[in-house]
């Protein structure tokens, strides 16, 4: 296959890139672009060049799979410079995404036009690196420093309309992209050409601007280094000559590319892309999902229904009586109202979301649904009763799923008519926001049912992870170990606030005790009490002592910490010290890094046990679970990655 082809529209050459799946800048593509620039410079019949891509997208960036290998010529900065130095103007015609090196190639072109659905961006910081082919140097020259700071330090792409406002592109076109780009090129030739990006001046902000940005970015980055290094590149671009800024950017890029953070973020990048289509299900066909239902309209059920509606699926919401139906619909309405408030949905879109929901108590409404997700109270008898009704009301080939977080799905499934169509789908709260979906087959679950779980995850934009059956599956089992290990440190005399600070220092938004205070200590307590009532031996936890004393977390004004009303700031608690007093050893100091290393090591140890038991299929599934369900810092790669020595 030829990756780069050239054809003509009279005096305009059209260079087409075709390097599926995403036109990543492999060595062959870089060489192809270089050769095209040389050939077209030498062709007197050509007055301008349109650069366009085949397939789903414009060039989506450097080929990330080449990052671990020695760089090969021609290097991308040279290719971009060659296009920029061309004797005729190049016009990038963008559809899909022009990302990273792809946008840098577009910046080497004299003009950028895009269709309405396109976006452009420099997402390198999300891979632990900075742009390496002039992104930090040309963007401020083309669109100004403020736009460049936004684009480069957040890594978030800008949609075409916004990109136009920011000055990142020159035009948004509505018709056929190639035709429009060729017309744009002809019109441009009638005007004086703008300067090449490299030759443009930058208006440099004062030192105060950079100091302010540094504070904001450091706070957001929580230990991630690339965003601040990217800011330093932008400052150099604003204050130093072009060539010096290019050299600075390249050195930063090469340094970061070899860093642990970049290795971690690359591993997560590929794990996330592999997760929705696991190799072991390559031959399993998923079932069609047209009509869906959710049983239970509480926080979880409403969240799941919202996620289904966001993916455009119609939902029947079942509750046990009319008042509960009304409450469930109200929960859903308030989720969409929140999305409107945050600017994620328009009023019209929110109304359309609600129109696709039917609230009812009547299981007969489920006769035609393809998938039902049960999200009722965590009580085996209640759940079994629901599944008995579902078995009677649904088609035998409908997929019946439970959202249980700690009951045994095999016990819930007892008595369903078609056990092959039963599966666990464990969402995380808020279910319309959290990316993780644990997919839990029973021994009877048919491969196509399992494949349907993954297909659902794809359509909801979730990160699916297959988990085997054990208490807590993957995520909650590791959470339990993490909390128990943190409590063990407290018993050994380490201060609660020190442990939380250590985990924040590691990159978590919250430490284990602050997180429990936010979520409530009573849920896990009730679970333990349930197990005790069932005759299991469950040792007393420090959390039990606090809950028994009425300290369930922020909602009761105190848990592991005290809170003053209206303030979420945790204050070390004399009451807690007193309540736990004789259970704790004498206070001792422990280095924060050592605390974090110990607790992450404990998570990984549980992860290894989970792998050995076949509960998780591969270490990266454990890492994705922790990153997308439990706030593990992405740039650490997850507990398994973080504790695996790299050569
Ligand atoms: C960079 O450019 C550095 C430069 O500044 C400096 C250079 C000197 N490389 O996501 P999808 C694969 S850093 C290799 O499911 P979508 C992906 O693994 C780069 N492979 O598609 C998957 O493979 P498979 C900056 C890549 O339509 C397949 O393509 N760029 C790359 O949902 C489809 O991916 C980025 O960070 C890559 N760069 O979304 C862009 N990208 O089929 C990252 C994708 O075997 N990419 N693959 O499983 C994306 O954001 C999305 O892929 C995109 C398409 C939005 C483009």
From TrEMBL:
Main location: other
Compartments reported by the entry: Peroxisome
Known catalytic reactions: a (3S)-3-hydroxyacyl-CoA + NAD(+) = a 3-oxoacyl-CoA + NADH + H(+)
Keyword field contains Glycoprotein: no
Domain 3-hydroxyacyl-CoA dehydrogenase NAD binding: from-to ranges: 292-467
InterPro entries: 3-OHacyl-CoA_DH_NAD-bd, 3HC_DH_C, 6-PGluconate_DH-like_C_sf, ClpP/crotonase-like_dom_sf, Enoyl-CoA_hydra/iso, NAD(P)-bd_dom_sf
GO biological process, one term: fatty acid beta-oxidation
Domain 3-hydroxyacyl-CoA dehydrogenase C-terminal per the UniProt entry, residue ranges: 472-563
Gene Ontology terms, MF aspect: (3S)-3-hydroxyacyl-CoA dehydrogenase (NAD+) activity; enoyl-CoA hydratase activity; isomerase activity; NAD+ binding
Keyword Oxidoreductase: yes
UniProt feature coiled coil, ranges: none
The protein's annotated pathway: Lipid metabolism; fatty acid beta-oxidation
Record keywords: Fatty acid metabolism, Isomerase, Lipid degradation, Lipid metabolism, Lyase, Multifunctional enzyme, NAD, Oxidoreductase, Peroxisome
Complex and partners: Monomer.
Name this polypeptide is given: 3-hydroxyacyl-CoA dehydrogenase
């Amino acid at each position: 296959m030829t990756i780069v082809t050239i054809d003509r529209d009279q005096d305009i050459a059209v260079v087409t890139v075709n390097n599926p799946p995403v036109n990543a800048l492999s060595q062959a593509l870089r060489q192809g672009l270089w050769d095209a620039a040389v050939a077209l410079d030498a062709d007197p019949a050509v007055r301008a060049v349109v650069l366009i891509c085949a397939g789903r997208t414009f060039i989506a960036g450097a080929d990330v799979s080449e990052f671990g290998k020695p760089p090969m010529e021609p290097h991308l900065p040279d290719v971009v410079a060659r296009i920029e130095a061309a004797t005729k103007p190049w016009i990038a015609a963008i559809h899909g995404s022009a990302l990273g090196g792809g946008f840098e190639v577009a910046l080497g072109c004299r003009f950028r036009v895009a269709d309405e659905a396109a976006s452009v961006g420099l997402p390198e910081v999300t891979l632990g690196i900075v742009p390496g082919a002039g992104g930090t140097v040309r963007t401020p020259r083309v669109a100004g420093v403020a736009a460049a700071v936004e684009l480069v330090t957040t890594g978030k792409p800008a949609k075409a309309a916004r990109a136009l406002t920011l000055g990142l592109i020159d035009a948004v076109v509505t018709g056929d992209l190639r035709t429009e780009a060729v017309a744009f090129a002809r019109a441009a030739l009638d005007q004086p050409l703008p300067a090449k990006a490299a030759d443009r001046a930058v208006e440099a902000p004062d030192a105060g601007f950079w100091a302010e940005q540094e504070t904001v970015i450091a706070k957001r980055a929580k230990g991630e280094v690339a965003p601040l290094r990217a800011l330093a590149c932008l400052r150099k671009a604003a204050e130093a000559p072009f060539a010096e800024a290019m050299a600075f950017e390249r050195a930063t890029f090469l340094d970061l590319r070899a860093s642990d953070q970049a290795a971690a973020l690359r591993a997560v990048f590929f794990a996330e892309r592999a997760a929705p289509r696991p190799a072991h299900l390559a031959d399993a066909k998923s079932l069609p999902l047209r009509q869906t239902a959710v049983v239970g309209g509480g926080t979880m059920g409403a969240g799941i229904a919202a996620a289904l509606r966001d993916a455009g699926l119609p939902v029947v919401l079942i509750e046990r009586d009319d008042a509960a139906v009304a409450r469930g619909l109200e929960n859903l309405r308030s989720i969409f109202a929140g999305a409107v408030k945050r600017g994620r949905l328009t009023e019209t879109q929110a109304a359309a979301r609600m129109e696709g929901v039917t609230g009812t108590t009547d299981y007969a409404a489920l006769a035609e649904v393809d998938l039902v997700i049960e999200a009722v109270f965590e009580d085996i008898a209640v759940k079994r009763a629901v599944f008995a009704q579902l078995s009677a009301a649904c088609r035998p080939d409908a997929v019946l799923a439970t959202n249980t977080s700690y009951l045994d799905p095999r016990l819930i499934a007892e008595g369903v008519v078609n056990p092959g169509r039963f599966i666990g789908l464990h969402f995380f709260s808020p279910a319309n926001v959290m990316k993780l979906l644990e997919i839990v087959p029973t021994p009877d679950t048919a491969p196509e049912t399992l494949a349907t779980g993954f297909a659902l995850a794809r359509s909801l934009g979730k990160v699916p992870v297959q988990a085997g059956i054990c208490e807590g599956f993957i995520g909650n089992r590791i959470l339990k170990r993490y909390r128990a290990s943190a409590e063990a440190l407290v018993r050994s005399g380490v201060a609660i606030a020190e442990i939380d600070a250590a985990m924040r220092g590691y990159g978590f938004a919250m430490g284990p005790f602050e997180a429990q205070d936010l979520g409530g200590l009573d849920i896990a307590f009730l679970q333990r009490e349930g197990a005790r009532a069932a005759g299991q031996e469950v040792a007393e936890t420090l959390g039990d002592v606090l809950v028994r004393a009425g300290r369930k977390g922020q909602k009761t004004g105190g848990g592991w910490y005290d809170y003053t009303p209206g303030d979420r700031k945790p204050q070390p608690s004399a009451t807690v010290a007193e309540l736990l007093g004789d259970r704790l050893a004498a206070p001792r100091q422990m280095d924060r890094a050592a605390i974090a290393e110990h607790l992450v090591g404990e998570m990984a140890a549980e992860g290894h046990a989970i792998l050995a038991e076949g509960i998780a299929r591969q270490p990266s599934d454990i890492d994705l679970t922790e990153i997308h369900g439990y706030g593990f810092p992405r740039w650490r790669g997850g507990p398994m990655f973080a504790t695996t020595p790299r050569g």
